[in-house]
Every structure is written in structure tokens, then in C-alpha cells.
Amino acid sequence: MPGYETRQEHVAIGGHDYRLRVLADRQQFWDPDGHGERLGISSAQWALFGQLWPAGQLLAWAMQDFDIRGKRILELGCGIGLASLVLQRRGADVVASDMHPLAEVFLAYNAALNELPALHYRHLQWDAPLPELGRFDLIIASDVLYETAHAPLLGGVIDRHAHAAAEVLVADPGRGNSAHLNRQLAARGFALEERRCALQPGEAPPYRGRLLHYTRGVPGGQA
């Protein structure tokens, strides 16, 4: 038996009811062999991957209607994988990635829970190049800018895995670090279109949530 507790959440996206196994709370911790610690995941951070965050739901909603035709898609920091599950249901060519030791297990379980085919998954550390992963037409992420230092790491991984003509979509809950990512991607030739979004039902404007849509060399895009 694993040394952590889970529960199920339900969320409706695009007329589908997604069932998700998530960690019971943010106090869960189980790292018996020190794998997470070696990856730099502290006990305080360990449970974050296994939660259903508002920005993750915002990204999933965006993926329900996003134009995915002919696009190879990469999700960074997928966690429990809701956005990738939405894309999988739509028949997208999607690869989910994370660095947490249990992300792949939770993603596989959640795909099965929703009667979806298994998703392609890759363990990906943003500071460790993985050339065999290849390049993508669309890179997505949610709530990945916890600290200022995350912006250059995110910029680097996007640089390595985005095609010359590509899109990046980041759902951000307004932690205050998005300007750092804007500068990172502007230096790499991306233009930004930002849209404010509600993160909770009944939230009054000005909304805290943001959908950051970066484009480079895409017909009809901003670049």
C-alpha cells in the first residue's frame, strides 16, 4: 500500500464529466527512497502535483475549444493531467510531461478512470535537455510560475522543444511572475496576447486568472 491517501474529484469540461484521482490534501508526503528529494522536490512541494488547481481547470477549458488540427502538443508540468485528458478525448497528438515521480502513475490511472486510451508521458526536468523528445507545434502549461526563477527554466525548455513556428499557452493564476516569462519568450521571438479569466465561479472582475497565448511565426497569430 502506498503511504499517501487519495480521493476522487469530478469536474465537467465541455459536456464531459471527468473523474480524477487526486491526493487527499496538501499534507500528503511519501518519498521512501528519496527519489523526490534527489529531484529537488521538498516535502512542502511534494503534494502539489496531485491537486486539481483552478489554473489547471482554466487550461483544460481552453483545450476543449483550442484549434489542435495537425498540431503536436506538449503539456509541461501536467500533474494529474486534466488538460491532457481533455486533449486525449479530442484525439489530439499530445505528450504529457512532469518531473514528479508519481505523475505518470496518476495520469495513467486518470486516463483509465475516464475510459480513455493511455497517454504518452515523458519524465521531463526543465534543466535537463531531452533531445529525443523532439519539437512541438503547441506547448501548454498551468500554474508553473511559482517563483521568479521558474521563468528562465520555462523559457529554456520551450526554446528546446518549440518549432520555429509555434504557440505556447500558459494558464496563470496571477502569482506575479508572468512578466518574467513574457520577457523570456519575447527574447525568443514570441508575441503575447493576454486574456483575463475568472478562476472561480462568481468571481468579480478584475479577474486574477490569465491565459497567456504566445505565438511565433504562426499564420494569423501575433508574431
TrEMBL record:
Keywords: Methyltransferase, Transferase. GO terms for biological process: methylation. CDD domains: AdoMet_MTases (cd02440). GO terms for molecular function: methyltransferase activity. This is SAM-dependent methyltransferase. It comes from Pseudoxanthomonas taiwanensis.
